[in-house]
Amino acid sequence: MITRVTHQSAQRTSLANLQANLTKMSTLQAQASSGKVINKASDDPAKAAEAMALRKEQRAADQYARNTQDGLSWLTTVDTAITSSVNFMQRARDLVVQGANTGSLNREAREAVAVELEGIRDALLGQANTTYIGRSVFAGSSNGPAFAADGTATPTFGPVERRIGAATTVRVDADGTAVYGSGATSVFALLDDVAARLRDPADNVSDALSQIDDRIRSMLSVASSVGARTNQLTSAQATLSSQSLSLKSDLSGVEDIDLAQTIIELQMQEVAYQAALGATARVLQPSLMDYLQ
To answer: Domain Flagellin C-terminal, which positions (predicted)?
Structure first.
């Protein structure tokens, strides 16, 4: 049995093939110009879903990286303030040792030591109210300064934390009362008391040395905790940087074209399209009279 192929069916077949070739060539041109395999979800739904999932992970990793950098800035500010405070306290200790030598200092010399201690007290209050981008690093999540002018700590509402992973948060501030004390037990009250006692020639302030040493140890203890958290954030930063590069590579593998391969395919498709144009032209060429003959 011989299958009958009409001129009209041959035209439809040729035009359909021509359109298919043109569509494929258009797709390759879009990929070559954009550099992406997927220009819309319908191009490859499975790969589009994979790319969306990778982009979601990438956005999360980028946010964690920003949180980590912000946390490092907070902790660096805290560490600098505590280091400066320890230095001030060491100077205060030297002055107390000097002031305890009652037989070698006259009234004017003791007054000078007292005035310097009061200056150190004010400098420590400034360190205790250190801020980062307008937020006190020793006041927790509360607004305003960590300490009032009289050295009393203001109420706090909780620690400042930064999320650096799906299930990991790190505290980036420090408890001001752990560093400086508060009220009558604060370092400010201690230095005020020593300065007042120095103005009494009969008073020996040597007993204040142990209190100063206790406060220095408290400061160093908090500084050690800050250092540990800084190391944690530094490690997380390195991990997130590596993760970000890995996600970029994975996304590129899903979305990006092989440029050389795409150009070759485009050239081949252009040749096929030109051939299809020639074949279609021949099919459409006969007239009605040619067909009737």
So the answer is: 210-292
Topology adopted by domain 57-251: f41 fragment of flagellin, N-terminal domain (1.20.1330)
Residues of the chain short of pLDDT 70, as ranges, are 1-11, 13-18, 20-35, 37-44, 102-103, 255-263, 266-267, 269-273, 275-293
Write down the residue that tokens 């399209």 correspond to.
273
Can you give the residue ranges of every domain in the chain? 1-30+261-293, 57-251
Bridge pairing between strands 168-171 and 161-165: antiparallel
**271: Cβ contacts below 8 Å, ≥ 6 apart:** none
Beta bridge partners of 131: 136
Rounded to whole angstroms, how far apart are CA atoms 234 and 265?
A: 47
pLDDT digits (tens, 9 = 90+) for 140-194: 998 889 999 989 998 878 999 999 999 999 999 999 999 999 988 999 999 999 9
Chain-centre distance of CA 273, in angstroms?
A: 51
